[in-house]
Amino acid sequence: MDEPMKVRGLGLMSGGLDSMLAVRVLQDQQIEMTGITFETPFFGPEGAQQAASQLEIPLRVVDIGESHLEMLKNPKYGYGSQMNPCIDCHALMLRTAGKIMEAEGFDFLATGEVLGQRPMSQRKDALKAVDKLSGYGGYILRPLSAKLLWQTIPEELGKVDRQRLLDIHGRSRKRQMALAADYGIKEYPSPGGGCILTKAGFADRLRDLFTTQENVGLHDVELLKWGRHLRLPSGRRVVVGRAHADNVRLQELARGEDLVLRVKGVPGPTGLMAAEASAQEVELAANIVAAYSDVETGKKAVVEVTGKEDRKIRVNTPPKEEFRELLV
Ligand code: SF4
Q1: pTM for the structure as a whole
Q2: Domain map (residue ranges) of the chain
Q3: In angstroms, what is the span from residue 90 Cα to ligand 1's centroid?
């Protein structure tokens, strides 16, 4: 006799407890689960990788940086408390996962969303909006709250037993904690971490970038994560390392003829600016780099500029307070 066809689900993994529990609840029905997670400059796969290895399921990591950034510039449902466009972001992830589901014969998509847990993105109308925007509405199962939600296609087809799904809602985490204990899940990050679009300082910088620069690309947003950002009176941006890791990363992020500035022979930050900078802009940037270095205020410093053209600029090191109002 032929074995019955295995039901296969593709579970979106954030790395948080809820998406782990969603997988476990479905595995209880002998459904074969594969995880999928996404990568952009704003969040990475690390949490999901740990979660998947704890659950012992395979995990797909999909880079959606380009499409996520385009969405982020003008999200249909707007932003949350910072620059997090959670409804559009979920829809994009589900659309991406949905295409893989279709191409590879998975039966449905699953998420760890819990009705009412987050004010903006997990209300019933928001979940409906995500379903519609993703284009895969009927195939999106939310096992932790499924009994409180509409029936999905895998339930209608008898591939998933609705009776064995859950009815969790609200912000309390008590039932999730109890389930985690039942399933022996011991390690999981606290909810809500991981996405820097929810962090106020980063969101301020991103807002500023979107309002002051056209054609923002992935390189621009990657740069936002590092160092101090100063906008010169001309509008040109200079990035100055705050710590050793910033300096290393800024050096790596310098493209082609971009200008890299360093004070000669003295510990201090790496500065980075676009190759198109004018001579006056480079001069000002050299003063800024010197100001943030270990050279004493008022003492002479030599700033080495490499990139489009190599040169040395001599400056009288100004106090860094002089540049405070240029900080973004
Ligand atoms: S918190 Fe970040 S990763 Fe999560 S849905 Fe919102 S924008 Fe997307």
Answers
A1: 0.91
A2: 8-196, 226-326
A3: 7
Retrieve residue 155's tokens: 């339930």
114-150 pLDDT tens trace:
999 877 778 899 999 999 999 999 999 999 999 999 9
Ligand 1 close to Cβ of residue 82 (< 6 A)? no
Query: Residue type at 281?
Result: E
Answer whether 75 contacts ligand 1 (Cβ < 6 A): no
Rounded-to-integer distance, Cα 57 and Cα 13, Å: 11
Q: Is residue 45 lining ligand 1, measured as CB closer than 6 Å?
A: no
Ligand 1 centre to CA of 79 (Å) is 10
Multiple choice CATH, 8-196, 3.40.50.620, 3.90.420.10, 3.10.150.10, 1.10.3720.10: 3.40.50.620
Instruction: Tell me the pLDDT tens digit for each residue of 14-53.
Output: 989 999 999 999 999 999 999 999 999 999 999 999 999 9
Q: How far is CA 135 from CA 23, 88, 132, 154, in A?
A: 22, 12, 5, 16
Residue 85 alpha carbon to ligand 1 centre in Å: 7
Residue 144 CA to residue 115 CA, distance in Å, equals 8
